[in-house]
Amino acid sequence: MSWEFIAAQFAAQFAYWWIICLGILLGIVVGILPGFSPQNTLIMLLPLTLGIPVDQAFAFMVSLYCANHLAGGVPAILVKIPGSGGAAATTLDGYPMTQKGQAQQAIVLSFTASVFGGLITTIATLALLPWLSQIGLYLRSVEMVVVMLFGLTLIAVIAAKDTLKGLISGLFGLLIGVIGTDHIYNAPRATFGFLELYDGVPLVAALIGLFAVSEALVMIEEKLIVGSEGRERAMQASWADTLDGLRLTVQKWWHIVWTSFVGLLIGLVPGAGASIAAFVAYQQSRMWSKHPELYGTGIPEGVIAPEAANNGVTSGTLVPTLALGVPGGSTAAVMMIVLQYHGMVMGPRLFTTNPELAYGVFISMAVAYIFMIFTILPLARYMSRIVLIETTYLVPIIVLVTVVAAFVERQYLFDMGLALVFGVIGYIAHKTNYHVTAMLIGIILGPLFEQYLARALRISQGDLTILFSSTLGNILWGFLVLSLVLPVLKTRFSRSSPPQP
Amino acid sequence: MVRKESAGADLVIPLLALAFAAYFFWSIVDLVWEAKANGVVIGTVLVALVLVQLARIGLRVVRGEADLRTDPLWEPRDVLGKRIGMVLVTIAFIVLLQVLGLTLALFVAMAAGLWIMGVRKPARLLAISFGVAATAYLLFIVALDAGFPHGLIEKIFS
């Protein structure tokens, strides 16, 4: 791959600016709405993508995919309603920033972390493609069990404020995540007799209920979602706040880089996704921070980590899809359908027989990110004004529109009712300080953890020592133990060390 | 006299979790171990933690530090009607959706929701409801054809 080839590809992709902008626009609209994942949007748009040339179709799909991941953080920051599972971790610090009157800074941080995180990992993917495509082969079920545990330890972190309540919430979520048929025998478990639950609890309905509906029911108590100080700051929002967000971006550039690589690595594993990446990145960011106690109070790092990671996933997901012919996720699977319809054969040969397309996908991703920074960043100032809308208007819109969105993923009215049930559970949890985020982590990661654990145990015929049988797995176990023990040791050390004169 | 802390609300989530865990265990009795191993481990730990929480609250009640009132769930009382009203409107919306179609059902539910929330100016109430319903129609029916039930409006414009 020569520099001339890359330059020619960049020029070719810039020529598709109109379709990339269309993809970005649509990706942002559906990304802001909880319930619209990129895969179901792309499925609905298959008549369009199958009808246009494959390179244009890919430019459109890739830009929609990336913009969707970016936009999910906006409602998470402004109204504590993540647009997707990948943005759930963003609520932990994004919403407190809004309540402090720093909504604009938080949105700018979310945009820049997403764009630069996505751009950096895309460039890294282009440069390291042959090696990255092999990583997915080494991360098997045993290693993925440990990766899942990285995410699940976030429950313990959240539970730190009230251990018992946090752990009950997390484990309740994990048990809800086990609803549905098992991964080996397809035996139904705790489905309450509903066929709609055989595939498990739909994540979108749980997300909408636990965050959107419950938050709206709590929001009723206040006139605005921000306090008087936050209102004053939101009313005085100016370009200076956007610049302040950019200043924070420059200040925290290294944080963007390393958390986006967490996303890239997790994205390389088929089946893992943005939700896991965001939770693991947030957990790691907190673990290695000098001030872990500030996480959850509204700090820039808490917004950067999940947002950079969930966009770092985007390029990682496409690596196994293109290089191995194994879809890295459900969105990548839809993209594969489009490629196959156009007669393309996935796998290593794609890079020799059709390099313009294979590398062009990543280059169009990079171009989409470049477009995004110029088109979206100026909007942060106006988006942050949403907090000034009175809850009298906001509550009915949030409840009804998000319940509508719950229908979209599977097109079952059942899911709308389920979202309402989760909304009531989430409301009770909110009012009694049981953590809905811990519950959601359980619901998201529980089924995946079980899936990988069941696979590993199936291979070993029930022998648990398989979990410690691979070198990479053991290294990951070591990191897991280290990341749990180190903060405790750091706290002990700082307490026992004499005060500096 | 110092008012006792109302701990009854704190029991709702643990009791829900306990009831669900019991149902879960009942539903997996006849399954092979691979299908139930994960759930059994999670459920057992959950039940143990719930029992600890129940014991903790029980002790506070016995000591006279707390009682079993569920006030935090219903307070502040002045917005309770709005809260219950919004839940009822949402249930009605899901039922009406099959009869009226997305656009009309959303328009009616939005108008009802805004009224419950205290919007009394007819022009504002109708304009917001119309705006939300029209946006939903354009996005979910026209642009994405997301499979929502069709009603009068959708048939007229199809």
Interface with most residues:
A-B, 63 and 67 residues
Please work out how many helical segments of chain A DSSP would assign. 24
- Tell me the strand percentage band of chain B: under 5%
Biggest sheet of chain B, strands in spatial order?
Answer: 1-2
Task: Tell me how many strands of chain B there are.
Answer: 2
User: Helix fraction of chain A?
Assistant: over 70%
Number of domains of chain A: 1
Taking pLDDT < 50 over at least 5 consecutive residues as the criterion, the unreliable ranges of chain B are none
How many domains of chain B, as an integer?
2
Set out the fold topology.
The complex is a heterodimer of chains A (501) and B (158).
Chain A: H1 3-14, H2 17-32, H3 38-44, H4 46-49, H5 54-71, H6 73-79, H7 91-99, H8 103-138, H9 141-159, H10 163-177, E1 180-181, E2 188-189, H11 203-219, H12 228-235, H13 239-251, H14 253-267, H15 274-287, H16 300-324, H17 330-341, H18 350-353, H19 355-376, H20 380-383, H21 391-408, H22 413-431, H23 436-460, H24 471-496
Antiparallel strand pairs in A: 1-2
Chain B: E1 5-6, H1 8-27, H2 33-62, E2 66-67, H3 71-74, H4 80-117, H5 122-143, H6 152-157
Parallel strand pairs in B: 1-2
